[in-house]
Amino acid sequence: MTERIQLDPLEPWVEIKTTKQDYQNADPKLLETMLGQLHLIRAFEEAILDIAGEGLVHGPAHSSVGQEGGAVGSIVGMRPTDAINGSHRGHHQFLAKAIAYVAPQLDVTNLVTSQVQEVLQKTAAEILGLAQGYCKGRGGSMHLQWHEAGALGTNAIVGGGVPLAAGNAWSQKRAGTTDMTTSYFGDGAVNIGSVLESMNLTAAWDVPLVFFIENNLYAVSTTVAEATKEDRLSGRGVGFGIPSWRVDGMDPLAVWHVMQEVEEHVRSGKGPAVVEAEVYRFFHQNGAFPGSAFGYRSKEEEEHWRSRDPLDKVANEMIELGLITQEQVADTRKQAVAAMELVALELLEPDLDGKPGARKIKANLWPDAGFVDVGLRSDLSELTGAKTLEQDSYTGETTDIRFVDAMAKGMDRQMELDDRIIILGEDVHRLKGGTNGATKGLPDKYDGRVLGTPISENAFAGLGGGMAMDGRFRPVVEFMYPDFLWVAADQVFNQIGKARHMFGGQNPVPLVLRTKIAMGSGYGSQHLMDPAGIFATAPGWRVVAASNPFDYIGLMNAALKMEDPVLMIEHVDLYTQRGLIPADDLDYHIEFGKARVVREGKDTTILSYLNMVNITKEALDQTGLDGELIDLRWLDRASIDWDTIGESIKKTNSVVIVEQGVQGTSYGGWLSDEIQRRFFDHLDQPVQRVHGREASPSISKVLERASIAGLEEVVAGLNLVKEGFGKN
Predict the structure, then answer these.
(1) Which residues contact 444 (CB under 8 A, 6 or more apart)?
(2) 645 lies in a domain?
């Protein structure tokens, strides 16, 4: 007969409730501060709903009315150096952190100081899209950030901010602090992969992150019971070995007590924690109508939850204890409402062309339209004075070395110089340098700075993004194959790529993402893409690609100094090829935005990158075409060397773009469009292209070769030019 053994969770899972005694024992100033914050946030949200109802909020206004207890109870006891981020419904968390930063204790007899008034006004201005907002109007309701106060930024992607919070928390730990980060998200996010991946990763690494689940019972109109079997959502944490707490989020003091226990655990270095606070949004997903107006909630249910309003809970307990009078509570409410009336007076004015009583936004408060692209990337001042070298003109002593060994050697030098550089990715810490040798010798030499991650691209890419945005570290994230970017597309494109611009163009995102193209290796359709075309059309990213070891070191050194996310594309065919690098000086840069003329010519301009540069050189030898071959090196829109390209085109009046990958996502599609727009008057023919086929490379050796461009295809393309398509 089989034996049955009852298994218990690795970490405890508890529910916390307050008693009358807890309120009696509570610091009266804590309760007063809670009450003041609750009323400020409630008045703010109601005022925003009124303004939105007048059509003056461009986009959604996801109010937190009813949910203030969880935010206030969890944040009121935090340090200024603790950090938070949240989701699209994050006004209450942002305000709680911002108000606590400028006024750690509130006096309800004088609730609204000038600093508190400024917080309310700047937050409202941001939601309205105005220049004086915290993100200069770019963030709006869903993207609120104030780094100084520890508000890392709320997020419109469900669960999207959690990996970033993990990166911030990792940085806090690595910097030697006992600070912590709390990431707020709703019940809908607990089934998102990035959240669950982050739980696993932070638990494995003992990262001081609090996963704060606001269980408001509905993801838009879908109930928790419909979405998951275990509706006690804090149970997610137990499955990853994370201690978990469940609490009534309508009781701010209960939440505060939970956070006291959570902080003791997290600050002592024991790793993450999960808190589930049951809360209730009084209105629909967006706007000022209740859920019952849309048929998915009953009025009886709404009345029940309104009877448990956290503002009333704290006020009634304080009144019962003789700490405040009903008149003082009413005056607290009056002060908060008056503060928002003043905000409205500062931001709005009568609309004389509208209906009686109509308002409009003051015209002088809008951002200037010319600000639209400002701050998308760094101004590159960080590269000022950098020493630059070119292989063709370098006269010093050189060393002949394999490409991949040069990669490891160059990174070793930079990690020696800059202890902020952290490498992370799958297997980078094992196998004598990762799967290809790019980190050879680094894990032993730089303890704790080469991090082997679980297979979880969403989590570790986002964690790298959070590290970069924290500012204390410069992560180098490795995707073993570029196809895996689709697994982490939210973090790569929605988060890392957009962060600087979205939050006002002020915060650097110094991250390098390394990945290798492996066409010809037989790994098939899900491992062999060229990501250049995807990243070149994605905002915020810089893209570099080296065809030789000398250039790789110089390009990587530049990437590691830049305050932008940089994609470094490599190719497995180059790893074993040899080349020359300086014997004693590895601290040089390849000049920003500078292409290399590999071979001069007059018949046609040939643009290429990576391994196809060498293949094109061989093709030119075979065809005898006098082509001018340019190794682009810097591929993105903001970095590409239009001067060198343009000078060549004006000489040859013809262009051929050579790349190896498939046609649909190719880099050449974007590049040819730009060339024909910029240099149409100098072209004697349309831009010619050499590229792979439509299908992704297959496992079959024959079909893989047929799907990609190689020497044969480049020769054929150049012969077309030689036979009359180009200039003779």
Answers:
(1) none
(2) yes
